[in-house]
Design a protein that fits this description.
Layout: E1 2-3, E2 15-19, E3 28-36, E4 41-46, E5 51-56, E6 67-72, H1 75-113, H2 126-139, E7 144-149, E8 152-157, H3 163-174, E9 179-182, E10 187-190, H4 194-199, E11 204-209
Parallel strand pairs: 8-11
Antiparallel strand pairs: 1-6, 2-3, 2-6, 3-4, 4-5, 7-8, 9-10
């Protein structure tokens, strides 16, 4: 039986809880593993290994509130939950290490395959991006002007370029983008890429026809 705070017992170690989730995170059940009455905070571990530290008691009220469940777990379940956290953390760390190693390998391959471009030491070096944009376009036989304005580079190509070729140029220049803008959150989200690691990146690269 699921109840709101106050309907069953107190917020206590071993109390089973339900996390409601949100847009980016799935809901799930777990157990309270620590309580700080003075600060009105608790630590909880979900049974899938996700953990929440120093969470306010206020989480049990309001919109999308956590719920206290009508079950109290003993030390064995708490220890099992803690082991699950350790396993999950180890798995995430391994995945990050493997992803980093793969990124480094891909970056090295790109540098070797593009000797006409200048490798960067800082992936957010806007000056190196401009230099590499010009070198890349020249190597592809594309006549274009490249100008920097703030956090963006503007690439102007000839008006006679066909729609198909324009799309190809746009895709080539897109590789220098550091991420993308999310209009829903009004935030820019950075995303590392092998191309950016190799030759630099900026927030925006805008390809336009010369008359635009």
């Amino acid at each position: 039986m699921e109840n709101a705070i106050g309907a069953i017992g107190a917020i206590e170690i071993g109390r089973r809880v339900h996390y409601p989730g949100d847009v980016a995170n799935e809901s799930g059940d777990g157990v309270i593993v620590a309580v700080n009455e003075a600060l009105k905070q608790f630590d909880a571990i979900l049974f899938d290994g996700r953990s929440f530290r120093r969470s306010s008691f206020c989480r049990f009220s309001g919109v999308r509130a956590w719920r206290l469940l009508d079950r109290l777990h003993g030390p064995a379940i708490i220890e099992m939950a803690k082991r699950k956290v350790a396993e999950r953390d180890a798995s995430i760390a391994l995945q990050k290490t493997m992803a980093s190693q793969q990124l480094e390998a891909n970056t090295a391959q790109l540098i070797a395959a593009n000797p006409h471009l200048t490798p960067c030491t800082d992936r957010y070096d806007g000056n190196i991006v401009g230099k590499n944009l010009r070198a890349m376009l020249k190597a592809e036989g594309i006549k274009a002007s490249v100008r920097k304005s703030g956090s963006a580079y503007y690439v102007h190509v000839a008006t006679k370029v066909s729609p198909e070729r324009f799309a190809e140029i746009d895709a080539m220049c897109d590789r220098f983008k550091a991420g993308s803008f999310d209009g829903m959150t009004d935030c820019y989200h950075y995303q590392r890429s092998a191309w950016g690691e190799a030759f630099g990146s900026v927030q925006y690269v805008i390809v336009q026809r010369a008359s635009e």
